[in-house]
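@channel sequence for tomorrow's demo:
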Amino acid sequence: MARFRRKKQENNALRELLSWVQIIVVAAVIAFILNNFLIANSRVPTGSMENTIMAGDRVIGSRLSYRFGEPQRGDVIIFRWPDDEKVLFVKRIIGMPGDKVTVRDGMVYLNDSETPLEESYIKEPMVAESPKSFTVPEGAYFCMGDNRNESMDARYWKNPYVYKNKILAKVLFRYWPGIKGIH
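structure tokens (generated this afternoon):
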């Protein structure tokens, strides 16, 4: 009788262990699918997107956003940096395919307009630099940080355009240190 109870206890312990292993495996598979196909989770290490996203914030992006729609001017995106695709960047889309983006006198102009782009999201006015002009190729985007005076963005990259196939996700919100929607 004692042997039977011991055997039953061993079977119960084994079932309990297998139950926990099954839960852990299922959770790992779900996390893998979410992180690789549905969402992108990224940390922003610098202040280049202040005040929209602060240095050290974490953001969640939707990997599905651009499978069913096109990127839009003003979207904040997570993408592979054109100068080193191992590095992920978070920036705002300023120039669309075919746009001419001109940066002069501390302002951004699109398509030879005399009126600068209205950018309520920038941290502070840009310090004026020598004028720069970029013509965005088809299938690509021109991206800048919201903290223009502290942003290493497309104005300074060797390869200034982000191609759609290098965009990982559209940023939906930041969740650390506090939840805030992206505008």
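heads up for whoever presents: The chain has a mean pLDDT of 90.
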